């Protein structure tokens, strides 16, 4: 018996380019298996698809090795942040307060 297939998308945005791939996988495929089938590892050799953080439509998937994809899912591969957004805001606020104190 033929196992039903579903279509999903896998996306990754590197610093210099972005790739979106439509992938057809068997129903019941896990997120991690879909990533490995997507060919993103060949397109971006620097990615460790076995360990990288991933999400579906902006929600991080805690266990991609067991979470099954559904038709229409968009798997997003996340890269590490260069700076902590909270720290950047804190530094910007401190700099603005310092500039305001000098101008008074």
TrEMBL record:
Signal peptide: none annotated. InterPro entries: Mopterin_synth/thiamin_S_b, RnfH, RnfH_sf. Belongs to the UPF0125 (RnfH) family. HAMAP family: UPF0125_RnfH. This is UPF0125 protein MOQ58_03645. It comes from Pseudomonas migulae. The lineage of its organism: Bacteria, Pseudomonadati, Pseudomonadota, Gammaproteobacteria, Pseudomonadales.
